[in-house]
Amino acid sequence: MKMLVTGGAGFIGSNFIRFILTKYPHYAVINFDKLTYAGNLENLRDVEHHPNYSFVKGDILNTELLIHVMKDVDVVAHFAAETHVDRSILGADAFVQTNVIGTYSVMEAARQTKVKRFHHISTDEVFGSLGPDGYFTEDTPYDPRSPYSAAKAASDHLVRAYYHTHGLPATISNCTNNYGPYMFPEKMMPLFITNLLEGKKVPLYGDGLNVRDWIHVDDHNRAVDLIIHEGKVGETYCISAREEKTNREVTDLVLQKMGFGPDMIEYVEDRKGHDRRYAIRPYKLMAELGWKPAISFDQGLSQMIEWYKNNPEWWKRVRSGEYQNYYAKQYGQKTGITI
Ligand code: NAD
Ligand code: TDX
Question: Ligand nearest 211 Cα, by number?
Fold first, then answer.
């Protein structure tokens, strides 16, 4: 089995590659990544010498390169995207380019090279914002409200169009907020943990009562693996560990686990168009594929905090933007094929 992972140097993609090479050491895994500010080959330092792992530095907008790299590839797992909502509010260009046109380009390459399976990683944010009640499922109509989620929604529609029009053997998953190791410290959880490790306050948006549904990245990746191997072509699967929390609740837990009090919270101006609540019911995934989450929020959060405590070089370099130089110096051309 030969698998191409786009965005494999990012948070979820790097954890996915580690998971796949551990579970299926005989699979050949190609990591195709542009190495934007969010992509970091250090995330894969422990697997980069695996005989079945290789890296290609490339932009998913480059269809020709993708077609070249996808020869003999059986499965494409498409993670590459611009992912930070706040950045999409500051400027949406890269979001439209990578998430919409980039997804079109990856699918076009997959269609031309006749891959056997194309899995598209998406988000619960395409469904919009919930009030205090109700849940998203596979049947919820799309109602994206940020430039990020609108671009992801457009990419989901394109994937379904390629399945119906061209018979692309595609599946889609829409997952809730991930957390875990190697998460870029601009997102709330790692930002708050690393701020506290540096003795800084944590900036909580608005009234802090927006709700997110949290899942450990390993539980997400186990679901993606199941969908790729056992999911039905043409289907969409919603993924959630059903761990709904207000941002204030998450903040309080982080503070408590790290030995700080609420005086370290700084309430700041709210995000524009801030979605109030996300929550998924993943009954289809559970009933049809037998998936269930294995890591509780409490356990996963403690592990995550430990990881950031034990890896200060990683997040300090990532926070300062230094890692790109670090990569150039330390890794150079040594990390498998680079075209
Ligand atoms: P990330 O920002 O950590 O990583 C994105 C990766 O994609 C980086 O390695 C980056 O270099 C790469 N990339 C960006 N533009 C590229 C391009 N044009 N060509 C090639 N590579 C490019 O993102 P993440 O949090 O790991 O998210 C991965 C996927 O999961 C995304 O599709 C995202 O929408 C989805 N998702 C994320 C979450 C979450 O909570 N983080 C939740 C649900 C779904
Ligand atoms: O400094 C902050 N303070 C704060 O209160 C930041 C960065 C965020 N927040 C709030 C906004 C959200 O309600 O915390 C919540 C989580 O914010 P983010 O970590 O930016 O995640 P979110 O906007 O929910 O989107 C994430 O989950 C779904 C990922 O970034 C997306 O890629 C994914 O699709």
Answer: 2
Q: Is residue 247 part of a domain?
A: no
The sheet with strand 211-216 has its strands ordered as 177-179, 211-216, 244-246
Q: Exactly one of 53, 104, 135, 148 is catalytic; which is it? A: 148
Query: Structural domain of residue 327, as residue ranges?
Result: 2-179+216-241+274-295+323-331
Supply the pTM of this predicted model. 0.96
pLDDT tens per residue, range 243-278: 999 999 999 999 999 999 999 999 999 999 999 999
Q: Does the annotation count 27 as an active-site position?
A: no
Q: Which ligand is nearest to the CA of 251?
A: 2
Q: Which of 206, 236, 42, 209 lies closest to 138, judged by CA?
A: 236
202: tokens are 């944590």
Q: Is 162 a member of any domain?
A: yes
Is 162 one of the annotated active-site residues of the chain?
Answer: no
Catalytic residue among 33, 42, 82, 124: 124
CB atoms within 10 A of CB 259: 7
Residue 143 lies inside a defined structural domain of this protein: yes
Residue bearing the CA closest to ligand 1, atom 28: 79
Query: Quick check: is 193 in a domain?
Result: no
Q: For the chain, how many structural domains are there in total?
A: 1
